[in-house]
Hints:
alpha/beta; two-stranded parallel sheet; TIM Barrel
Amino acid sequence: MSFSKDFLWGGATAANQLEGAYDAAGKGLSVADAMPGGKIRWQVLGSDDFDWSIDEATYSYPNHKGIDHFHRFKEDIALFAEMGFKCYRFSIAWTRIFPNGDETTPNESGLSFYEQVIDECLKYGIEPVITISHYELPLHLAKAYGGWQNRKLVVFYERFAKTVLTRFHSKVTYWMTFNEINSAIAMPALSQGMVPSTGSRVQQNIFQAWHHQFVASALAVKIGHELNPDLKIGCMIIYATTYSFDANPINQAATMVHNQAFNYFCTDVQVRGEYPAYTQRLFKEKGVAPLDIHDGDLALLKSYPVDYIGFSYYMSGVQNVTAKDAETVEGNILGGVKNPFLEASDWGWQIDPTGLRIALNDLYGRYQVPLFIVENGLGAYDQVEADGSINDDYRIDYLAKHIQAMGEAVDDGVDLMGYTPWGCIDLVSASTGEMSKRYGFIYVDLDDHLNGTGNRSKKKSFAWYQQVIASNGEELTND
């Protein structure tokens, strides 16, 4: 395996999952702040009467506290530097900059905070990789405007993107416009700020919201490239390699259609700069009428495609329409049919390193732009031993096999920019609002109710990843 000498090894987080301090320094409420913790999260968000109200008498809201990275970021970044990070992917909370989302003047306290985070990274030679919008839509925009189905959000996002790009473009080269933009196909609450009471069950609204996000993303690329043509501004999707249940052509066709709708649609528009040929068929099958597309939108999309594809990869899936009694499993946003050839995580996500090699070849063959794996990791229960050690060999095994698959893809000719495993430090899970679903190399002493000291300690995987980075991916053994 031969990763490039400037390969970006690092880790990834999101503001709403680790910062805490949800109402400090002028920050407003985001949709994440209204999402309750625990496995009941999806049930609440998917209920007919959910209206984004915060009910602290009934639910807990772990995002409010997170792991207090807001006050402890220097300590955390020092640990990232000790591991040898070349980059650190994090997000800017929109509500720290524009508390309600529709203001015209930014909150200087929020900008100052992220300037400090960026400068702390640069102090250690760590490249910041910033997601502009990572499941952190201002709550006011979800409640008063109905989320991204409303065209007005394009203006608000453009203002937000212009503010942070103008402020930080001289220090930050790598950006992404929206996190896992395609997740709206199953959970519009996260990326589009839409729930059943505001029309999330209507496919027309989801696709219209996507169009607005595509326009907003293109505007961010335009702003960034006008500030500095060397900025690299990417899109970001969930990618789940998908297999057919069997060789039945019916299941093969179902896999093709699934890939078009889930794995390709958003990237086809953001990378190629135009709606794909299968759009009309997709809209017909989803019951979507022609979108409200303003004059100049399509020209903007064509003129300002993204520079690279960032994507998350945790698992693969299986498409089946013929075997009605097939066993099903959980997954990242989308579940599916159980694959008997794969093991699964503690949360039922099917582990498939070879699927990552397939994903990389598929995306690079389709788009011919650089790729960046900006999320990959194993959510698991970690046991603290009597001596304080955490022997997460299962995490090392998972990551080592995925890095080996990355190397195979590089040898296949894929242009791979970097790798930032998800949750490099333990944080609140986006899917379940739990702390017990841990991903990090760094353990944070907090339980699902955020009781604990909050102290940081190194897992066995910490030293292992340190050696991986130092050897540029050549040394994957678990000593």
